[in-house]
């Protein structure tokens, strides 16, 4: 195994093992030894995060583990990102994401954002307690491809349908894929409000985006 | 003819009640929605609050009524936290109180129990008990230590602490255990309260592993339940998510009944618990109560009863909080099937 591949594998492993200090050390070694930062992100950090996502789906990892893995990944990303050649990243789809109005629970949204960024999407985070009209305004302003709406509360789910109503009213529904998720959300609810997709968890949302944007 | 209160008590004691008891609200503001008022409108009027809450529960014939649902953020506000009131749900906590041990030391539980908000909660409970006159079962609703910790530190930061700084997590949980106990003891000063309802949504089986559940949820929840057992009240705990793989741990807390999410299979839960504690749940609040017709709600609820109620020790509840969009007709269908199911059960 070459030194370069060894470093990428170690980076991946350190993310999965939640070893932020090791990730920092390895990312610095990638830079110091002149290896490709983009490949280090793709084959190291992103692969580690993907594996963490798999462990999450398999219920080996839960929310705390996934968050600490993400912290380790971001620590490596901070070091590697300035060394990535801009043309190496290719075309990216843009997602605007947020938690619907009335709900301040953003942990699920944050996990989805992490997994989508890791999956190569450009994610614009609108935060929490976001008005339905703001989702639409920001999607238009940022020329987004996808609007991703999250809520943990049954009491605020209605706002998700309002986003789609506004898109229809403005005659721009076809310009965006709308995906929804969160604790109380189901495929049935997504179908009812006319969303394009629903995913049960953060890792699955990446596969959903890829299938919708094919 | 037994009263709803007696039926609830029998179910909690593992018996077969004459009529299977039903509750409607787990933690939310549904009675306010159907009466077209908000919690913010009612904060100056505990009498009206109790009247509305009781009236709606009476109209749908709920046997089990919780006081303090939809208002748990008020305890955090009383500690000094910022809360935002909304028109479409319970108030939400808009700032975090704690990021370090020193922040924790600045929080005063005793002072929190003396705020206007806490006085309002107690007055609502007092009036609800007065209106009820012993007929239905009145429970005080509050949060468990793990959920309180996530409310005052933020679930994301608290989750990190479980792995990166477990001693901070433990200190925070020791504090929220004291807070939870102080809250319930304060509310139990109201004469005539039948039980305590401890909600622990953040300890969801979808959020924390069994390992973390055993270390950071169970011991602190047990402390609260066991301390409050001295009051000789009924005790119900609700934990969100799929907790099937940790149900076997719950009887050791001393709780009398667990309320499970719709993700839990009632038959499996019943087998695991094996009568050591009661079981309640778990009509899906969205896919069933919100999305289906009253007839369909009736049928799904009936299946819950068949799965969970046969040997007694069961109360029918939604699997989690219900939203403003759930119709009163659907709630009534859920209540009706439980009350009718008893007849079939006695015949069989």
Quickly describe the structure:
The complex is a heterodimer of chains A (214) and B (348). Chain A has 214 residues and is α/β, with parallel strands linked by helices.
Task: Give a written overview of the molecule.
The complex is a heterodimer of chains A (214) and B (348). Chain A has 214 residues and is α/β, with parallel strands linked by helices. Chain A has 2 domains: 3-86, Methyltransferase, Methionine Synthase (B12-binding Domains), Chain A, domain 1 (Orthogonal Bundle), CATH 1.10.1240.10; 94-212, Cobalamin-binding domain (Rossmann fold). Chain A contains 9 helices and 5 strands. In chain A, strands 2-1-3-4-5 form a 5-stranded parallel β-sheet, sandwiched between helices. In chain A, helix 1 (3-16) runs antiparallel to helix 2 (20-32), helix 1 runs antiparallel to helix 4 (63-80) and helix 6 crosses helix 7 (158-169). The longest helix of chain A has 21 residues, at 37-57. The relative contact order of chain A is 0.12. Chain B has helices at residues 4-12, 30-34, 39-42, 46-59, 73-78, 101-105, 109-112, 116-132, 145-153, 155-164, 166-187, 210-228, 266-273, 294-308, 328-347; strands at residues 64-67, 83-84, 92-93, 137-143, 195-200, 234-239, 257-260, 278-283, 314-318. The two termini of chain B are 20 Å apart. In chain B, 55% of the residues are buried. Classes of the chains: A alpha/beta (214), B alpha/beta (348). The interface between A and B is medium-sized, with 33 and 35 residues.
